[in-house]
Amino acid sequence: MPLKAHLIEARNRLFKSALAMLPGIVIGWILYDPLMYALTEPLREISLTRNINASLNFEGVTTSFDLKIQISLILGLIIASPVWIYQLWAFITPGLTKRERRYTLSYMFASVPLFLAGIFAGWIIWPNIVRALTSFTPTGGSNIMKAVEYLQFALQLMLFMGVAFLVPVLLFALNAVGLIRGKTYLKAWRFTILGVTIVSAMAAPGSDVMSMFFLATPLLVLYFGAIGLCLLNDKRRDRRDAKKARESEATADVPTPSTDLEIL
């Protein structure tokens, strides 16, 4: 396809993805109030149990309205994730071979539930993070947070967890096509821990160590879990290759029949 046709194809894929987000945006707009109540539940619990004033501050006249729009857009993006992930796959698949298409299709089906599972995991650990980060506030004190920063913290954490849960898919995909062996991943474990720590520090909205720790731990667990799967896959591939090699050696010792030589 010429460049113009590729650009038109990309525009159409983006339009379909944006169109799929509309129902999610409407749902996010409707669920804004119960979602805000659930996200701020840890603050109410902290206020009751620890005798401190933990609450949100909505600065400005339009802050509440802006937050409602932002949350609706993010929920639309999450709900429409199966559609835009498929559109991305459909855009790149014409340039792949039949074997590569089969691999990428299976990984696409695995990516959607893993991404949503990561979002859900972020939702589960969110109250624990809030409790841990506000535990340093002395009893009788006040912890009044900016609503924008609080919600950005929550949503950024959940999106980051969603991406983190895709790490096994990427690592195993590279191993399945034979590009990288599991031992190669394992040898780079020191650099991986360093890289995960740096990425978690950049992704964590605050400068505290606890938020970075809560982000880095799932990444490391997923990384080493993917390495284990890659090592098992390498063993299976090595056994298969060794069996083929033995069969080739066995057939090599058998003389070619004269009838086959005459045909040749």
Reading side by side through the largest sheet, how are the strands ordered? Answer: 1-2
The average pLDDT score comes to 77
Give the distance, in angstroms, between the N- and C-terminal Cα atoms. Answer: 43 Å
Largest sheet: 2 strands, parallel
- Tell me the number of strands: 2
Residue fraction in strands: under 5%
Low-pLDDT stretches: none
- Radius of gyration from CA coordinates: 26 Å
- Level of helix content? over 70%
Overall outline:
flat
Q: Could you describe the 3D structure shown?
A:
The chain is mainly alpha-helical. The protein has 2 domains: 1-156, no CATH class; 166-251, no CATH class. Helices cover 80% and strands 4% of the residues. It has a two-stranded parallel ribbon. The radius of gyration is 26 Å and the shape is flat.
Could you provide a short overview of the structure?
This protein is mainly alpha-helical.
Offer a few descriptive terms.
mainly alpha; 264 residues; 2 domains; flat; 12 helices
List the helices and strands and how they pair.
Layout: H1 3-30, H2 32-39, H3 41-50, E1 53-57, H4 63-79, H5 81-92, H6 98-134, E2 142-146, H7 147-164, H8 167-176, H9 182-187, H10 189-203, H11 209-252, H12 258-263
Parallel strand pairs: 1-2
Helix pairs in contact: 1-4, 1-5, 3-6, 4-7, 5-6, 6-7, 6-8, 7-11, 8-11, 10-11
